[in-house]
Amino acid sequence: MAAKRTVYHVAPSGERAAAAGVKWQVEGREGRRLLHEPHKTQKDAIDAARRHAKEHTPAQVVVHARDGHIRTAYTYGDAPVASPDERGRRAGERGGLF
């Protein structure tokens, strides 16, 4: 069985943190440890999240835009195998994501 993938989210900080100059944060769970790192720029937060992901493979970095939508994602290490329903099916078949 494949190891569970660690997911790090790069997201805008809340209003209180933004008022203190912290505009972006990295959140994730490394085993039992909860990670919450403040950063001044999105680039700094992405760089930090990618460093963590490379150290804790398999991992994924999910980058959110200011409005909260997912902008992009980076995967490190082997990606878990998806079930047929998660992969989708050919056009015209019932089920799947498409």
Structural class: alpha+beta
The percentage of residues in β strands lies in 25-35%
SSE order in H/E notation? Answer: EHEEHEEH
Give the termini separation.
Answer: 27 Å
Overall strand count: 5
Describe this structure in words.
The protein is α+β, with helices and mostly antiparallel strands. It has three helices and five strands; from the N terminus they run βαββαββα. Strand 2 and strand 3 form a beta hairpin.
Q: What brief labels describe this structure?
A:
3 helices; alpha+beta; 98 residues; five-stranded mixed sheet; 5 strands; 23% helix
List the SSEs and their pairings.
Layout: E1 6-12, H1 15-19, E2 24-30, E3 33-39, H2 42-55, E4 59-64, E5 70-76, H3 84-87
Parallel strand pairs: 1-4
Antiparallel strand pairs: 1-2, 2-3, 4-5
Q: How would you summarize this macromolecular structure in one to three sentences?
A:
This protein is α+β, with helices and mostly antiparallel strands and 98 residues long. It has helices spanning 15-19, 42-55, 84-87; strands spanning 6-12, 24-30, 33-39, 59-64, 70-76.
